[in-house]
Design brief:
2 domains; 24% helix; 5 helices
């Protein structure tokens, strides 16, 4: 999930953050190990990605139609380094912010101005936003082809379904309820904080999101 539309520059001092872990497997079953050597691989990778993005942007800026180009940069998942102190590493093992909070950067075209949106968004918001703001589709028709919302019209309360290879979860303004392990519900920002069950009315609404585009 991303909510930041302001371009981020990775400092150049992250080009090489030593020491980096040689034996990565030693981290995955321990919660007391120092995670920094493994984590240092992450900013090093970010620096390389930032370098590639800069090359892309500089190339596009040379085009005469640069002002008409929409550029979208988004991550597919986060990466956890035992920040919850519960022996979670990598991704696809829980739905906390460490594994599901991703950057979302959009360079709009035309008269749209850069800005930062603080409300929660999801990957699902990208398609209706582009079809409406870039292609010119009617905003009132967005719910006919997507569960997502317009990024410049995000509500205060957000309900969505997030998933990985083996499970999925209901997410309501930072409360997470795992569907595979129904008893597992926690705070998105800190898994050690248990949150109340998501209300039945919210769950019904989320079930509607999951099934609305299914056909028999």
């Amino acid at each position: 999930m991303g909510h930041d539309l302001t371009p981020t520059v990775i400092p150049r001092n992250l080009q090489n953050s030593p020491p980096t872990s040689v034996n990565k497997s030693e981290h995955f079953l321990r919660r007391d190990i120092n995670s920094q050597p493994l984590k240092n691989n992450y900013p090093n990778s970010l620096y390389f990605v930032d370098h590639l993005v800069n090359q892309l942007v500089q190339t596009l800026k040379k085009r005469p139609d640069w002002d008409k180009i929409w550029l979208v940069i988004v991550g597919d998942h986060g990466e956890e380094f035992n920040e919850n102190c519960l022996k979670y590493w990598g991704h696809a093992s829980n739905f906390s912010s460490w594994q599901t909070h991703v950057p979302l950067i959009i360079k709009p075209a035309g008269h749209f101005k850069l800005g930062q949106f603080e409300r929660y968004s999801t990957h699902q918001d990208i398609v209706p936003t582009l079809l409406t703001r870039a292609v010119g589709c009617d905003a009132q028709d967005a719910d006919k082809y997507a569960n997502g919302l317009l990024l410049d019209q995000l509500p205060e309360k957000r309900l969505t379904v997030i998933g990985c290879y083996v499970s999925s979860a209901y997410w309501v303004n930072g409360a997470v309820q795992d569907k595979l392990l129904g008893s597992l519900h926690y705070d998105w920002r800190d898994m050690k904080n248990k949150r109340p069950d998501i209300s039945s009315s919210d769950i019904l609404q989320l079930i509607g999101q999951e099934t609305r585009f299914f056909t028999r």
